[in-house]
Design brief:
The complex is a heterotrimer. By secondary structure, chain A is an alpha+beta fold. Chain A is built from 24 helices and 23 strands. Chain A starts with 6 loop residues before the first strand and ends in a 6-residue tail after the last helix. In chain C, 23% of the residues lie in helices and 18% in strands. Classes of the chains: A alpha+beta, B alpha+beta, C alpha+beta.
């Protein structure tokens, strides 16, 4: 096998049995998410169990591209299982993290890990090549995520330390390495099975959404460590090297001469690092295994690998209080990583609590008693107190510990605060990320799935770049018509010239449904299964490229073939994505999913621009097709029409071959995808689409 | 740049006071990858600190880490007039905004005006700020 | 003594001095001269490599693309343990101590070559005197690895093929179409996203690391990106 290493590790924590699954049995699903869903389908007979039930099956999957030179597709690892964050139901869901773990798992000889059952006491899993041991984790329980990893590093090195070649096995011919073990672990809130618990690897790689940290905690699993010295066979090594250099030359960031176009943050973007560090602090951009763009950083002042919400949840409070970013932010970022807390919930929670505080509803002795030091909001101590209260389930932490949606319910504020939007949980209890009122493909994709979709494919070219250009009066890299044409060309096989129409009419029409279709299928296969990173792919508009056409559609199949030797067209990959999407849809159907549940929070329908006032949203400039012409237009301030959304859902379900009355896959669709047994199972449970 | 006249003690007192919830100003932080984050602003000083400008080149260099602070300037003017009674500052903002067509170019001009007024207030309350 | 003679060419003192004056090796050999002087009237010289890899550890992004490229072009597979350049990192350390890049120095006096009992590791005259291993002659004694004065040793034990191997400046890369070696390209240099690895024909200072760990951040967009150039 090329790309794959042939075996998936299966660990039953109840029986402590360690066995293997042949990767070949699941190869048709690609890797990552596809394999994870297929394995979950086979090994979790009752899909309705709670996420904390020992019968929940967790998959941690790599792809054939993990650990290889494919740019921005080597470093990510996909985690799936029944989550505990989703509201009102912890759907079968997914998360994903970067760093070194997936690569090391491949070098150790494993394409993935399947976790079943529950250990009778805290344990950690020690993987050194083919040697897998379940070890006592009592001494790790209670440690933060960083201390856990450092402790495990010492144990795995057997006292040899680091900075030199280390033999990780009994003799030299099993290999030596200079690399530290890659460890995936949970913090205290995960141990306590909170939905806020996430999985952390190294300083800041996090599988944040879904509550998988709490799921690990429910299994008494503290950490998984992996170190490998093996090889990944590559079908066409020269082709892979050439392809890597081809992307560098034609599409990638050039540190000697950065491209002039603005707003790219996907494949061609420059390094991220931490641009708002306090003055005078040295830093470097840093990236996952095999990455070409290094989106995060490490600094002399801390905040290592905190580059997104793990940083942004607090930077504006720090700057507001101190006039600029200070060490308070860096300490706060490090703290939440160590605590293993989902920072999206922290960010939204802070917005919500601050609203309540400013209204005089929350505070010491108030209607909602809370002694968080709001006069010190912006200081590290505020975050420290908030984390402490969550971990100890004290004060307001007693409520936050259960997740924001449940916290709001317990405090009697769920309906009103979701209606006003001061608690912006847009769908399924997940934090508002991009706005469903304007960027509908984001909202629709999230609503039809299990969580905030976190797929930036259209976000960069259809929203960010046009909005930045509009705000600065810069020339758009491509006109709206050109953008629409590029998208239509690349979004095979659904290519529709009006797919990118975000106008007030267009967002309810069939072309938008085709865009969402393509998006779900592309994401399910290329990004979640083959693990092309969301911060690089899809690449539609690229300032370095000829005609500014990005590499999506050409690069993904090229790299897949170079690594695996399998000839597979882009369209064939999209079709595999459709199959995976339908399998997930079937799992949700078994969990009880019905179209009536697929509604946004009330504020999406009810809160828009008010005369003379801005809304939560900003000048959201996107492509629209109006009066026979394409143009970029500011769309902020609109709301979604409930009935029109329902009508759109009907269009979408029909396009997918789902029952429009329930939103569930039909037998015809499932059998057409080779999923007869799935159709049988749905029918047996009364959940098959008609 | 419009030179603002010295504010009265009463105006300074109003400008340096925190406003209650109903009179907040809404700003938004636009982030390249992390989405838009609402920011409620409860004081004039907070509004001054909230707004800072990056150039287009800085935004491009920042890639996925890029961020813009957005406040609707029409709303800002209304807030300054109705909540603080600073007609002069509101009018001056309108004049500066009218000299440029785009937000990114208007922002540094508005920021300078705001800081001019803030520093006047701070001088009068004997605190320096830059 | 006898071992060293097998690996090197004998020069008379006069011809050595002649050569030394005409090349830049004087400083490079400074630390080793006493050894050479001790050998009767003859000095033993292992010709200097015609190429070297320099790195900027403050610029490195820790992506290990160099390591992936190295094992790919040499072995046709991906394996960090088989990479002839190693990047070590600790994500909890603060910059700049979180990453180190450890490349082979192509030492002007290669202790690895001196230690090899079978002449498997030599300064190959057909490849610009790059110090490399002929795997057919390697008997797996690992003396070269132990002799390397660097930590981690810059010679790897290839546990799959069971022989030593080391950086050859991509002189022998069966899985890359580009010509390598001192007159060609190096995979790590070609693939590094930030140009944090550079090839040079000039012999770096042999004392300490500073000849090999250099600043490559001053002449591109690094500073303009707001990143430190010192």
């Amino acid at each position: 096998m090329y790309g794959y290493v042939g075996k998936i590790l299966r660990v039953n924590l109840t029986t402590r049995k360690i066995s293997t699954i042949n990767t070949e049995d699941y190869k048709e699903w690609g890797g990552g998410h596809g394999m994870g869903s297929a394995i979950f389908w086979d090994l979790c007979p009752d899909k309705t169990v709670d996420g904390r039930d020992p019968r929940n099956v967790i998959t941690i999957m790599t792809s054939p591209l993990s650990g290889t030179l494919v740019p921005a597709a080597s470093g990510r690892t996909e985690v799936q299982g029944i989550g505990i964050q989703g509201h009102p139901i912890g759907w079968y869901t997914r998360s994903n993290f970067g760093g070194r773990f997936g690569a090391q798992l491949k070098y150790a000889g494993w394409d993935g890990i399947v976790l079943e059952g529950r250990a009778d006491k805290p344990v950690w899993i020690d993987i050194r090549n083919g040697n897998v041991k379940i070890r006592d984790g009592g001494h790790l329980w209670g440690l933060d995520t960083w201390a856990t990893q450092e402790e495990i590093w010492q144990e795995v090195s057997d006292g040899q330390g680091f900075g030199n070649w280390v033999e990780i096995d009994s003799w030299r011919d099993r290999g030596r390495t200079t690399q530290r073990p890659a460890v995936l672990t949970i913090g205290r809130v995960g141990e306590l099975q909170s939905p806020l618990g996430c999985l952390i690897h190294d300083a800041g790689n996090g599988a944040g959404q879904g509550g998988f940290g709490g799921v690990f905690g429910s299994k008494n699993l503290k950490a998984i460590s992996v170190i490998g010295t093996g090889s990944i066979d590559i079908a066409h090594p020269a082709m892979l090297m050439n392809a890597r250099l081809w992307t560098r030359e034609k599409y990638g960031f050039n540190v000697e001469a950065p491209a002039a176009d603005v707003g790219s943050f996907n494949f061609p973007a420059g390094p991220g690092a931490t641009p708002y560090l306090p003055p005078g602090i040295g830093q470097r951009p840093q990236g996952c295994t095999g990455c070409h763009k290094m989106c995060r950083g490490r600094s002399a002042g801390g905040g290592n690998e905190s580059h997104c919400v793990d940083y942004l949840f607090y930077n504006n409070y720090d700057a507001a209080k101190h006039g600029q970013i200070t060490h308070h932010l860096l300490q706060a970022a490090d703290l939440v990583q160590k605590a293993g807390i989902n920072v999206y919930q922290m960010q939204t929670g802070l917005i919500w609590l601050n609203h309540l505080y400013q209204q005089g509803i929350l505070g010491p002795g108030k209607q909602i008693d809370c002694d968080l030091p709001f006069d010190q909001l912006g200081d590290y101590v505020f975050v420290e107190r908030m984390v402490e209260q969550i971990e100890k389930q004290e004060g307001i932490g007693k409520y936050l510990f259960k997740g924001l949606a449940q916290a709001a319910i317990d405090l009697g504020r769920y309906e009103q605060d979701l209606r006003s939007g001061i608690l912006p949980l847009q769908e399924w209890g997940y934090s508002h990320h991009y706005d469903a009122r304007t960027e509908v493909e984001w909202g629709y994709g999230s609503l039809l799935g299990s969580r905030d979709c976190n797929d930036h494919d259209f976000n960069v070219c259809c929203y960010w770049t046009p909005s930045i250009c509009a705000l600065f009066g810069a020339e758009f890299p491509v006109s709206a018509a050109e953008l629409a044409a590029i998208i239509a060309e690349k979004c095979v096989p659904y290519s529709d010239p009006l797919m990118a129409d975000y106008s007030d009419e267009g967002i309810y029409k069939e072309p938008m449904a085709k865009l969402v279709q393509w998006h779900r299928h592309y994401s399910n296969y290329y990004k979640q299964s083959l693990l092309f990173c969301d911060w690089a792919y899809a690449d539609f508009v690229n300032p370095y490229a000829e005609g500014k056409k990005g590499l999506t559609g050409e690069a993904e199949p090229k790299f897949f073939t170079a690594v695996t030797g399998i000839e597979q067209s882009f369209e064939e990959g999209i079709e595999i994505g459709r199959k995976i999407w339908n399998l997930d849809r079937a799992i949700w159907a078994l969990q009880g999913r019905h179209r009536d549940q697929e509604v946004f929070a009330d504020y999406i329908y009810e809160v828009g621009a008010q005369p003379g006032y801005t809304t939560y949203e900003i000048p959201y400039v996107m492509p629209v097709y109006e009066n026979g012409q394409w143009q970029y237009k500011a769309l902020s301030g609109r709301t979604l029409d409930r009935q029109k959304v329902e009508d759109w859902k009907t269009i979408y379900y029909k396009l997918e071959g789902w029952d429009p009355n329930t939103g569930r896959p039909t037998r015809r669709t499932l059998e057409g995808l080779g999923l007869k047994e799935v159709a049988d199972e749905l029918e047996k449970n009364g959940k098959l689409g008609a | 740049m419009v030179q603002l006249s010295k504010p009265s003690k009463e105006l300074v007192a109003r400008l340096m006071k925190k406003v209650d919830y109903q009179k907040q100003l809404k700003g938004v932080i636009m982030n390249a990858m992390a989405g838009t984050i609402e920011r409620s602003i409860y004081s004039f000083q907070d509004a001054c600190n909230f707004l800072y400008s990056s150039s287009l080149e800085e935004l491009q260099a920042a890639g996925g880490a890029g961020s813009i602070r957005y406040i609707d300037f029409g709303v800002l003017q209304k807030w300054l007039r109705e909540v603080f009674g600073d007609e002069e500052l509101a009018t001056a903002i309108g004049q500066e905004v009218a000299t440029e067509a785009f937000y990114g170019k208007q922002l540094p001009l508005v920021k300078k005006l705001l800081m001019q007024r803030l520093n006047q207030c701070l001088e009068l309350t004997q605190v320096t700020h830059s | 003594m006898a071992d060293r003679k097998r690996n090197s060419k004998e020069y008379s003192r006069r011809s050595f001095l002649k050569m030394a004056s005409g090349t830049a090796v004087g400083l490079a050999f400074g630390g080793f001269l006493p050894r050479l002087i001790n050998v009767d009237d003859h000095a033993l010289i292992i010709p200097a490599s015609e190429g070297y890899i320099l790195v900027d550890t403050k610029k490195c992004g820790g992506c290990v693309s160099c390591m992936l490229a190295c094992s790919l072009v040499h072995e046709g597979k991906e394996n960090l343990s088989l990479s002839r350049i190693q990047v070590l990192q600790n994500s909890f350390e603060k910059y700049p101590n979180d990453i180190s890049q450890e490349q082979c120095k192509q030492c002007t006096f290669p202790a690895c070559a001196e230690a090899c009992p079978t002449k498997a590791l030599t300064a190959d005259p057909t490849k610009g005197h790059v110090r490399l291993v002929d795997s057919r002659k390697c008997i797996g004694c690992m003396q070269c690895i132990q002799a390397c004065p660097q930590q981690p040793a810059r010679i790897q034990w290839n546990h799959e093929a069971r022989h030593s191997q080391k950086c050859d400046l991509c002189s022998v890369t069966p899985y890359w179409e580009e010509k390598g070696g001192p007159d060609g390209k190096q995979a790590c240099v070609a693939v590094c996203p930030f140009n944090a690895i550079k090839f040079t024909k000039e012999i770096p200072t042999q004392v300490g690391d500073f000849g090999y760990k250099v600043n490559l951040r001053k002449h591109d967009a690094w500073g303009a990106l707001g990143l430190p150039t010192d």
